[in-house]
Amino acid sequence: MTRQGWSPARRDVLRLALGAGLGFCAAGRVDAQDAGARRARPQPNDRFVFAGGLRKNELVTLADLPPDGPPAVTYPMDPATKIVRDESRLNQVLLVRLDPSRLNSDTRARAAEGIVGYSAVCTHTGCDAWDWQPAAGVVKCPCHFSEFDLKNGAQVLNGPAPRRLPALPLRIVDGVPVVGGVFIGRPGFETGGG
Ligand code: FES
Question: What is the pTM of this model?
Answer without folding.
Answer: 0.84
